[in-house]
User: What shape does this take?
Amino acid sequence: MISKLDESLRFNQTALSLRGARQELLASNIANADTPGYKARDINFSSALQSALAGTSVKLPMATSSVMHLEGNAGGQIMGAPVQYRRPDQPSADGNTVNMDVERAQFADNALRYEASVKFTSDELKDMLAALQA
Amino acid sequence: MSLFNIFNVAGSGMAAQSQRLNVVASNLANADSTTGADGKPYRAKQVVFSATPMGGADVQGVKVVRVAEDTSPMKIVYDPKHPMADAKGYVSMPNVNVVDEMVNMISASRAYQNNVDVLNTSKTLLLKTLTIGQ
Assistant: This one.
C-alpha cells in the first residue's frame, strides 16, 4: 500500500528534480552571458523525463564506422539525460553562444512549470489525505 | 539540492559583474590621470571572465581570472603648459576610451540585474517547494 502511495508521487517528484536541475543549467547560462568561449547548454526535458522515469540513461554516442571502434560518449549527464549545447542563431566573435532573450524566456518558463509541479504534488498529497480521512 | 546551487552560480555572476563595474569606475575616474604610482600615465584595465565548474561539471559559475591592462597606445595631446608635457610640449594621456567604458558599464549593470532576477526566482521556487503538503 505504502509503495503505491510512493509510486503515485514518483512522477511529480522526478519532474521536480529535473526542473530543478534544468533551472541550474539555465542559471549558469545567464551567469556566463559575458564569458568568452562559453557555450550555452540545456537538456531536452521531455526525453530526459522519459528516460528518468524508465530508469535508463540516454547516451550521445560518437559515429563509428567499424564495430571495433571504441564507443565514445559525449558530454555530461543530468539524471541520465545528456547535456546538449544550444545551437546559436547569432554567433558572436568571442565564441559565446548565450542568447539572453532565449535564456531568460526559458528560465521563466521553467520556473513556472516547476511551480506547477509543486502544486500538482501538493494536490496529490491532499487527495491522499482526503481518502485516508474519508 | 540543485536549486540551492543557483545561489552560488548567480552569486558568482553578480560578484564578477560588480568587479567589472569596479574596473569601469576606476577607468572613468582615471580618464585624465597623467601620472600614477609608477610615474606613467594610467592604463585602462579590463577584467577577464572565465567559466568555472560549480557543484557539477555542467553547471558553471563565473570568476574573474585576471585584470588585463589595455595595451593600446596612449593618447598624445599637445599642451605645452601642462606640468607633465615633454620637451616638445606633448602630454601622454591615459588610453581610456570613455564611450567604451560607458557601454561596458551599462552591459555590466544589465548582466548584474539578470543575475539578481535569477536569484530571486530561485528563492521563490524554494519557498514554494517548502509549502508542499501544507
Notes: Chain A has one domain: 2-133. Chain A touches chain B at residues 16-17, 20-21, 23-25, 27-28, 30-38, 41, 75-76, 78, 83, 100, 104, 107-108, 111, 114-115, 118, 121-122, 125 (CB under 8 Å). The beta strands of chain A are 41-42, 77-78, 81-82, 84-85. Chain A has a mean pLDDT of 88.
